[in-house]
Every structure is written in structure tokens, then in C-alpha cells.
Amino acid sequence: PTTGYLEDFQIRVLLALDCMGWVIRSIVRGLFGMPSLERPRLQRQQPVRAGFSKYDPAQPLSSGEAKEMEGPLAPPGERCLRGLDVESIVRRAGYPYESHTVETEDGYILQVDRIPRRGRHRVMFLQHGILDTSHAWVSGGAAVGLGFRAFDKGYDVWMGNFRGTGNRLHVRGTKRSETAKYWKFTLDDHGALDMRAMIDTVFIVKSQEHGERDRFSSISDASDWSSGQSEAEDADKPGKIYPTNRHKALSKSKAGSKLPLPSVPPDITLVAHSMGGAGAMIYLANSYLEANPHRISRAVLLSPAGYHTQVPLFCRMTGPIINATLANWIPAFCVPHGTAQAIMAKFVADMLSLPALKDLFSFLIAGVIGGTVSSHPASSPRVAHNSLTSGTSSQVFKQFWANFRSGSFKGFDYGSGLHNKRVWGATSPPDYLKVLESNLDIPLHFVGGSGDTLIASADIKAVHNRLAIRSPHLVSFKNWTGRAHIDFTYGLDTEMADDVFKHGGLVGAARKLRRNGLAKSTKKGGPISIKYHSSSK
Predict the structure, then answer these.
(1) Cβ(467)–Cβ(440) under 8 Å?
(2) Is 295 left (phi over 0), alpha (psi -120 to 50) or beta?
(3) Which of 312, 325, 459, 536 could form a cystine bridge with 185, CB 3.0-4.6 A?
(4) Checking DSSP bridges between strand 245-248 and strand 98-103, what pairing results, if any?
(5) Model-level pTM?
């Protein structure tokens, strides 16, 4: 997809030698009166235009597509990373693709990728982890990617992207992404706002596609909830392209019980990895606290973050320093868009093209997240480049570190009782595990790996054990021997995928509760009365 500086230098040296040879041959041919040779020229690549996402370099452009390519050249970063976006990967694998743009309640604009099966009742919603994107579910191709596997199993596949990834847009303008204000969000915002907006979008779109548009017409303008029903008959054709749909987040009142329940609600299985797993638990807990339906039938949490008592030595050594310095000096851990991403992409290409540097990189990564140095998934160019388009807020790091220090899984502590009172409605943030203990109403399958050094399998097991005290029939746990952190996404094998689908079909006694469309409000100990309000506005 891109070349490094070393490869660029080699190409230019070869071109220079070729030109020198042409000059010498031309002089010799001129001395003997022979016709001159045509000067060698470097064939230019077809340019990538901003806003044009349908271009497939393997196919010739039609006249209509050529017109679409009119406009300014895309930024350098986009040209270097061309072909690595989810749409290109999905289309080249021969699957249908659809993109939805979702606006959260606090104005962040997120992209939700979809491999659509419009007529299917079963939905699998995939949520990535930290410093990652929906790219994780398709990068390995049809043989490895969970997104493709789920589609082949008959699921309508949706893949969410947290704020801080992709184009990093906000309703107040794209320039906001370059300011500290954009990055003023916490892990709580990922769960309470991002996942709420994305899953409500899935719920509404699926309900509309099943012929219940009129019942949901009051939630938003029809244009906001366009589901493309006119293309339903072509939904599963390989390579089918659908227009980007724009959606707004439901207000809290409409996200609650006032939202009409479809006669046959979509059966949504949530599969989340790493920070996505933490976001999923926060989403569920916040739904219980707000007495809003969470619309999830079951969840599979792959190496979920949130509760940490064990972390890698590297994190133990650098965590206090970062928490006290960098996390206070810079708003985010990310690579800026444009030229910076282009430069980094070339350095990454150089590093991965040299065996010694590639092994060193794999060794360092394996020390943090686990895995085998000789064949580490992170050493793949696609995986490395994917990290260039993702980022996270410094406040997210501070929240993880605070939870590690306290040995708990709580909301962000703003330091003062007054500030906490404004955000949480209480002088201290909620304990999410305590909320889940009292209110859990769907099956949760926890998955860990003994080779995962970033999120210890023992910590995941501890969360499972705590929830199993009150809900033993709803929680399960699987420990995979030797599996590391990103083996659950980029290195997913058939055995692990089958385990996901096995638990993706659990229904259990809690299904009746989901059909009511109401979160449980009574259980031993009662609900915790805490309200969450975003602090990033």
C-alpha cells in the first residue's frame, strides 16, 4: 500500500542509472547516425481524489467514475494509506459494503461500517479496542476476519468505531479534531455515548428495514434514518456499494422506554475486544442506571479491559511517569492527520522491510501485549498502518491507570466532589461491576488468553467470578492457552471463531426480559441511583 524511504531511494537510484544509460546510448547512437531513443519516463499512478471512496486500482475507471474523481488531490496521509481502509478490504474480498455516519449526543461524528444482510434478523455488532479501528475485524481477509466469518454464518454485520479514530470529526467543525477540546473525553464517553449512538442506529435501521418505518418516523427526520430499502433486493450481491447514511443520536428521552418497540426486535450479539469490552460493560451499566433499554441480546467480551490488577512490567515502569507528565501536557496519544501520517507510514514500511528491525519491533510489542515474536500479528503492515489512523485521549489513559491503582472498575474521577456531582450526580464515580452485579439480564461470555500480558486472564476470570455470584446462569468464561491480546482479532483462528458463534447464539431465560425493551429496575440490593452527563461539551 505504501513504500518506505529506503525503497523510494532505491527506486530513484535505479531511475538515475537508467537515465544515465539512456544518455550514453543516445550519444553513441548519435555518433553513428542512428535514430535517437525515446527517453524513459516514470509512469505515474492514478491519483486518489478526496471524497472518492469507490476507486479500485485493480479495475479500470468508467467515464462516470472518472468524473467523480474530479477535485483536489487527497492529503498525503490518505494517499499513503490508500487501500487499507475497511471499504477497500471488504469490496476486494467480494462482500457487500455499507457505511453509516453516526452523530453522538455530544456532537462527535462516528463511522459505522456494515457488511449488510438486510433481510436477516440476527445482527452481530463488533467493537474494536484501544488504538484500533473496525479494520481489526476484516484485516485478515475472508479466511481470518471475524466480520467476514460472521457474514458467512448469516449475520448482518456492523462494525463500530470509537471517537478518536478515522477522520476525527465533530459537528463544530473538522478543525476541532486538532484541538484539545476534541480529545476531552473519557472511557465513560466511549461506552455511554459512542456505543449508545451506534447500537441505537443499528436498532432503528433494522426496524425500518423490517417494514416498521412509520412507527419510528417521530424519532428523527426521514433523511437522517435513510435505510436504503430500495436496494434491499441487491443487499447480498458481492461488491455492492450503498450510499453513506447519516444518523443522529437519540436523545435520552427517546433512547428510553418512550421509543416504540418493534414487533420483532433485532437479535443483536455484541462482540467487543479490549477497550471495546470495557465500553460494552459501561454501556450496559449506564443503561441500567438510566433505566434505558440496551437492545443487546448477549455479549461476547474478548480480552475485555476495565479491571486490572496485573499489567506488563513496561506499563508499571512508564505508567507513573506518563500519568504525571505526558498525560497532563498533551491531550491525546495519536499521529496527526496529513503529512505526519504519511511520514510515519513510510518509516513503518522501512522498519517492517528490514528483518532485524522487524524482529526488534515484534519483540517490543510482544513484551507489552504478548505473542510470538517470530510471527506476531502486529508486524503485519496492515496492522501497523491501522494504528496510524487511531488515537485515544489522555484522559482514557488516566482512567485506566487510576483503576489499576485502585484495583477497581469505576468511572472517571474528576478530583473534586463538585465536579463529580455535576457529571455523575454523586460525589464519586460509579463502580461498574457493582452496577452489573445488581442488574445483569443478558448472557456475558468472557474470553481470555494465557499468553495475554496486557490484560491478564486472571483479571478477566475475577470479573466473571464476581458476576457469577448473583447470575451464574448468565456468565461464562473461556481461557485460551497461549493466545495473546490481538490474537482475538488479527490472529483469530477457526476454533476461537467457533467459540464466539457458539456463545453468540445463547438466548437463555433472560431473552424474555429483552423483549420487554426495559432494563431491570428491581433486584436484590436495588439499582444504584447515578446519572451520567458528558463532560466533553
Answers:
(1) yes
(2) left
(3) 536
(4) parallel
(5) 0.77
